[in-house]
Amino acid sequence: MLVKEDHILQAAQQLFQKYGWQKVSMDDVAKAIGKSRSSLYYYYKSKEEIYAAVVNMEVDDIVDKIGQAVEQVTGTEEKIATFFTTKMHLMRKRRELYGSLEAGMNADEISSLSGIKRAGHARIMKGEGDLLKEILKQGVEAGELRPIPPREMENLVFVILANMHGLKREMLLAEDAPKIDTLAQTLSQLIVHGLKA
Q1: Distance between CA 58 and CA 18 in Å, rounded?
Q2: Is the dihedral of CA 50, 94, 130, 126 positive or negative?
Q3: What is the pLDDT at residue 162?
Q4: Looking at the DSSP assignment, which residues form a beta bridge with residue 145?
Q5: CA-CA distance, 184 to 188, in Å (whole number)?
Q6: Which domains does the chain have, with CATH numbers?
Q7: Rounded mean pLDDT of 96-108?
Q8: Nearest CA-CA partner of 168 in 66, 85, 82
Q9: Distance from C-alpha of 158 to C-alpha of 129, rounded to nearest angstrom
Q10: Which of 121, 150, 161, 189 is paired with 48 by a 20 to 30 Å CA distance?
Q11: Which helix (H) or strand (E) holds 10?
Q12: CA-based nearest residue to 86, from 61, 111, 105
């Protein structure tokens, strides 16, 4: 009997988080799911493939949870603030996973995973970008925001996401960073004020 892929990925994620990338083998993942290594190879040919799938699973989960949180509120300003606060809370929880993955890795190993990380980053930018476009389109339809031409929409979404990523990085580095909710309100007010109908 074959095992479900999500079972493999959840087991691999837990192993990576607990032991780091370097100390986890394909045998370890197979053992964690109670299957043979050959069963694992039916789905994934290498630890790198499993890592890429874990990253994709994480990204999809983050985007889904942000989308669900945004659906619970009304108004463009509140939706943007909820988008940012939810993203920040999720990223703080997942920081452990990503920090532990690289523990004990040498430069060649870190470099070999950089392509997977870039692909994961592109995937999250796309998913979050689609969510933001929908928020802004709803704001235009509700008369809260002025019409936004397609090219401007692409640029605007990129700028908003880049600012959110920059704020996230600064908050992680700063010891006395303002609270997430305060920053989210400030950012969403700036965006909505600049795009008022």
Answers
A1: 16
A2: negative
A3: 92
A4: 196
A5: 6
A6: 47-194 (1.10.357.10)
A7: 62
A8: 85
A9: 7
A10: 161
A11: helix 5-19
A12: 61
Q: Cβ atoms within 10 A of the Cβ of 80, count?
A: 26
Residues paired with residue 196 on neighbouring β-strands, in sequence order: 145
Nearest Cα to Cα of residue 69 among 151, 145, 10, 128: 128
- What does 19-77 look like in DSSP terms, one character per residue? H-TTT--HHHHHHHTTS-HHHHHHH-SSHHHHHHHHHHHHHHHHHHHHHHHHHTS-SHH
Length of the chain: 197
> Which residues, 6+ apart, have CB-to-CB distance to 47 below 8 Å?
21, 24, 25, 26, 29
The chain-wide mean pLDDT, for the chain, equals 87
Contact 83, 135 (CB under 8 A): yes
Min mean pLDDT across 7-11, 28-32, 89-93 is at 89-93
| Torsion angle defined by CA atoms of residues 27, 32, 38 and 39, in that order, rounded to the nearest 10 degrees | -160
| Contact call for residues 26 and 47 (beta carbons, < 8 A) | yes
User: If you ran DSSP here, which 8-state letter would residue 147 be given?
Assistant: -
Token pair of 89 as six digits: 């809370």
Q: What is the pLDDT of residue 2?
A: 45
Which two three-digit tokens encode residue 124? Answer: 């999250």
DSSP assignment letter at 148: -
Residue 22 structure tokens: 């370097």
Quote the CA–CA distance of 37 and 31 in Å, as a whole number.
Answer: 8
Would you put residue 149 in left (φ > 0), alpha (ψ -120 to 50) or beta? beta
DSSP assignment letter at 145: B
